[in-house]
Amino acid sequence: MKTKHPILLASVAALTLATIPAACGKYSAGGNGTGGSTGSTAAGGSSGGGGSTSTACLTPVDNDDTVPPFDGIPLPCDAFSQGGTTCATAHSTVRVIVSGYGGPLYQLCNGTSAAGPSTCKGTTQDITSIDGYADVATHDSFCGTDSCVFSKIYDQTGNGNDLEPAPKGGAKTTPDLPAKAKALPVKVNGHNAYGVLVKPGVGYRTGCNGCNITKGKGMAIGDEPQSMYMITSQYDLVDGCCFDYGNAETTSNDDGNGTMEAVYFGGGVVWGTGYGGKPGPWVMADLENGVFAGWENGQDKNISTNKPLKFDFITNIVVGDTKEKNCGKGRFMLYGADATGADAQFGKLTTMYDGVRPEKTGYVPMQKQGSLILGTGGDNSNGGAGRFYEGATATGPAISKKTANLLHAVIVAAKYATP
């Protein structure tokens, strides 16, 4: 028996049929032509310096703006499934994002809480869903006026990759704090809910040496492809390392370039930047020892295709492909949009980057380890901040732009709004 999700199909249909001009039609999503003076590539990026590379083996940039047909009203992990991938993790304090999931969305702690796993020293309460949305009445009743915290965010996939406050790591050698549970009210399809407001010092993790769950299940390992998304906002960002959701080290240490791959949203900290330079913010990939808005002309600054996104709710998608792509230079893709679908330029999903991985040692092949983080870096750097409403990682072939379009369409249909 599938959980009912009263998401308006008309919203998806409107996005599918819209004729809103996409920003990716106004500039190339270049970068996969890096590696020598070979002229402009068929994939839409101008070539850079550093050797000779034939364009024949470059992977074409995927700028397909169509939304594939679908049955019923899919949820985000349905979109991944239709694209041939399987959600390995799925987390939201707002709503169900995996069809058929009937378990709790998150656990609250009322009373004393401490940093790190097993944070709650007071009373706990699991919050389930009603018609697919968080049971906010029980949330409010349990918390009252006290400072409840999110002590656990449950994995909706059935893999058991439940997030708890992170243990100590190499960068921050003390455990992380849980987030306040009533700090980020939101509406989704008219239902009240609460997102996760990550502040410096707050961070969650699973599948690591110091975690209660020591090994992640179903996560991408090594150079295996993965696709992931999170819904966030331009607000409450802090340009410290690192407001992430995704795959990271099992050791909670910096194990070198390419040992993590996560969605990051923000100003790039001390690393790469998108178009226009600071402050952004941009959808980027945290690949360890760098958050990347792309790779262009042999460097990671001011990536011309990656435009800043300044909206209340933002779709962020990162896709990591494999080492043989782009003549052995690997491939990663970044997509972003206004998650409400309302903006004239960015209402449809935009290709912010589709090209080679950073041309530095360690990023080809990738060496992902399969821990999962939220609101912190792979080595427990948790000086960043931002808003988190939902996110998932998926394994299997790297999703196409068409599948990413479907994912964005079902996010738009959720009708995120400020209360």
Structure characterization notes:
The longest helix has 12 residues, at 401-412. Helices cover 10% and strands 24% of the residues. With 419 residues, it is mostly beta strands. Helix 2 (76-82) packs antiparallel against helix 5 (401-412). The protein is globular, with a radius of gyration of 20 Å. Mean pLDDT is 89; it is low at 1-52. The strands form six sheets. The chain has a seven-stranded antiparallel beta sheet with strand order 7-11-20-13-14-15-16, with no helix packed on it. It has one domain: Jelly Rolls (Sandwich), CATH 2.60.120.
Kindly list the characteristics that best describe this protein:
single chain, 419 residues, mainly beta, Jelly Rolls, seven-stranded antiparallel beta sheet, six-stranded antiparallel beta sheet, 5 helices, 23 strands, 10% helix, 24% strand, disordered N terminus
